[in-house]
Amino acid sequence: MHPSLKLAALAAAATVSMASAAADPEWMKSVGEALGKSGAAMPGGIYRVGLARTDLKVTLDGVEIKPALALGSWLAFHKRGNQGSVMGDLVLLTSEVTPVITALEQSGIEITALHNHLLRNEPFTMYMHVLGHGDPVKLATALHAALSETKTPLDGSAPSPAPASTSIDLDTASIDKALGHKGKVSGGVYQVNIPRAEHIRDGGMDVPEAMGSAIGINFQPTGGGKAAITGDFVLIAKEVNPVVKALREHGIEITALHNHMLNEQPRLFFMHFWANDELGKLTAGLKDALEKMNVAKRSGM
Asked: In terms of Cα–Cα distance, which of 129, 127, 95, 93 is closest to 110?
């Protein structure tokens, strides 16, 4: 065989091997068993597990925060061949931070960020971003040990969730129109995810939406046509202050600005926000902010 054809064949075989690993549901099942919580297969061969802090009763400015609004820990696993990776965001009480860091250090899983997302919430929550490389099942086992240092519901200890509902006391059509992307109802919250236009990588690894590269905007109805909003904008450096200005002009509070990853390209900044106001005022501010950013084209709009 000609050398160039041999190289092409080897590359094709490697691609097939990685695709087969990503599509194989057995490794995903094993990860769920090791973690103590099952997840869902996502585009790009990602296995994402949601770990909502349903054990916490958190209030902010008189609003009881639903887990889907701002208390959703998550872990996203990816497998290539015999190896894999995990990225995620853990919602922690301040008393849980050091025990979790200790457990993660012992297992070799990296902490890439630790910070607040909200202000004034009681009890106060911190958010720890993690990155690990290796066998996905071993990573899940290590993360289970770390999460066991918290009261995050695992091993079926969480109460049975209420039946899923697609209804919500919000004008979701107006939200979709303003933001240019369709959302979905989850846990009494309307969630809109918007990808950036760039191809995002971290340490040479692709970071698709399901691994935390998408803009997330969440709406929780608070009555009388109002909503509490929070989430994070994913920004490059030149967009940060124009977005700050756009949000502040519409009464939306900036609550945090920081990294989530360490070696991503392009360099990204994550801006968290909060407001509880008339829906139209909020969507106008969010739309203004999105127009300052290089986001992907509108989906189905």
From this structure: 129
Residues 28, 96 within the same domain: yes
In the three-class reduction of DSSP (H, G, I as helix; E, B as strand; rest coil), residue 225 is classed as coil
pLDDT digits (tens, 9 = 90+) for 18-38: 444 445 689 999 999 999 999
Domain residues for the domain of 94 are 23-147
* Owner of token pair 């549901």: 25
- Cβ–Cβ contacts within 10 Å for residue 165, how many? 10
Helices marked H in the chain: 3-23, 25-35, 67-70, 94-107, 136-147, 172-179, 240-249, 279-290
* Whether pTM exceeds 0.85: yes
Give φ, ψ of 261 to 5 degrees: -120, 175
Is-contact 286 178, C-beta < 8 A?
yes
Per-residue DSSP letter, 141:
H
